[in-house]
């Protein structure tokens, strides 16, 4: 590791250039209140990817996609046969999302690679900027499909039947997307069809309040809490809202309300570490004067402790069934990601680079899951956090200023100059 | 009143013909389980109306529509200047509805008029078979728009901005529909642009269990309980489901669940006379890992007692507001129909006609609201109920057999022979 090279790479990061690119991306799918709605595998997503590819080609990076449509922009190393260092994040957003979640990590990686090249800092290993497909899971559940497939966590066809709210399947939309990107060279899919990377670094906004509260610039992420997602389907019987006596009904809304109330008790946590969310509800027939025949609702449950995640997660089925009075319920687990701890090599590299830049650092876990959660299974991985104003994300008011984002990109440039020379 | 004419008209009712027409209508919008989904002002609705119009024209009835697309099939009286007797119901269905609710009332009226004509029973007054627009309110809320406008209960443009789940407005869809029926003569809109009818009779399935339980053929409907419909909008703040601490959230799903639970307590009725239903829920952004920013839910509240309807209905706002912990709520009343009592002349005519036919009768109130609720404001009105198997309606399994339906049409034919000669 050459501290001078690291400093030179960091110094070449251009705050205005990075911010300008971010704002141009934010225009694709812009929604009121400075937000972004850019679902994966849509025309908007493809516009954003083409914009990124154009910038990469201007820099002389080589572009490729794999069968999950994960997108790679490769900076060649002096020893091309070595396993590459990957850096990036995702480009899709939540339906009512912000301008920074995901996309900044991809643009920070591009900025860091550009800085390395402009500073004339060569690396032994190749560096690949990566944009993973469907991290958010907002259109097709679950999230992190691209990185899960890349890491061999699940077979690549696992989610083909996942549907969006219009009934389109992930498999069909992916095939359509790949046909529209047929001009881009195809590459093997991660460790399933190819080799593991040497390391993976993901820059991301914190999505929590801690860095801002402590007035620090860089979060050195120690790990990611575990997540378990469920769908609960409550099945009752439709009936006439004006005639059917309440004692004879099988009202799916009423039993769903009872189930959510019982789950609140199960998930009660005086320390407020546990995250329990019911955020998606679909009622059928959803007509105000027909008693509900079916209610489907989602459960998003997260905790950093493996034991809590197992015990309370496994209790969901029993609690839901216990809440049913006249209806029946089916509980399906859709996603289960264990808590992980990031590799020490990457954490140390981030911490040292930040300190060398004179930036204040905080070691902290991630409350959100990220693609790094799956990459960490196949290579040393880590994340760089920058502050989120008011801790808000997944909302149009999500915000991180240009100076904080530039600081994050400088740290990444130095980390890449370090890791890609190991 | 000529009892012989009444008996001859009733005897000319053709059970198989009526059933055959009903089954042909049921094919338009057929859904699994013998159900029907035929929303108002759709192509399916128009197909059904054209099918009805064809049958009416074969009989020599004259066809007209008013500006709400209420459809009239006129049998001329010997004294055409007299106010007509109206008989009918509606042709739209619930989204997951059955084959009998509404449409049978229209076809029974057609069958009764055909029987009168075949039996050579002349009437002094004209008789008009009517199909009211949007009784169900399943696509555009509230229901009974056609009869409310006809009766001058609300101005005809009141619901122009009401939207369906795809964002189409009632006003625009009505205009489109009228353009597609421009070949049909236009008539004045009820008492708003014309004269009041002499009387109104609506045949309908009971939608409750009483006639079946007492093994009786004909319900002589005494009145209709009152209905109040509300929409509750709970406004919170979206946030990241993995990072936002629960104590800092404004989770609209959680406060909506609290509101529904509190409303259950307000609406508790040990006698099970009160009808309280939450059957429509819309969550925004409705993404499983974004805390809900907004929840809208419907309230359908009914009771035969005017005082209960006023007191508990007026308490809804307070109870909802009291349930809010972190969110705010807006409660909007969308529909308010007072309980009504049907006119004695029509009730007596129905009861006598049924007994003359040797049918068992039961006097009972209606739990559902009907177009007759609004017609009763402008002319003597009444309803003829026939048994509903298991009391089920607003569901594909809704069923009434051909013999019961023929009995209902026979009573109607006799009632029309009576009322249209007064």
Structure description:
Two copies of one chain form a homodimer. In chain A, strands 3, 4, 5, 6, 7, 8, 14, 15 and 16 form a nine-stranded mixed sheet that branches. In chain A, strands 9, 10, 11, 12 and 13 form a five-stranded antiparallel sheet that branches. In chain A, strands 1-2 form a two-stranded antiparallel ribbon. Chain A is α+β, with helices and mostly antiparallel strands and 422 residues long. Chain A is globular. The model of chain A has no long low-confidence stretch (mean pLDDT 96). The longest helix of chain A is centred in the C-terminal third of the chain and has 18 residues, at 306-323. Chain A has 13 helices and 16 strands. In chain A, helix 2 (15-26) packs antiparallel against helix 4 and helix 9 packs antiparallel against helix 10 (306-323). Chain A folds into two domains: 3-225 and 339-419, Aminopeptidase; 226-337, Alpha-Beta Plaits (2-Layer Sandwich).
Quick take:
Two copies of one chain form a homodimer. With 422 residues, the first copy, chain A, is an alpha+beta fold.
What characteristics describe this protein?
homodimer; 422 residues; alpha+beta; Aminopeptidase; 13 helices; 21% strand
| Element pattern of chain A in H and E | HHEEHEEEHEHHHEHEEHEEEHEEHEHEH
- Contiguous helical run count of chain A: 13
Into which percentage range does the β-strand content of chain A fall? 15-25%
Mean pLDDT of chain A comes to 96
Look up the CATH topology of the largest domain in chain A.
Aminopeptidase
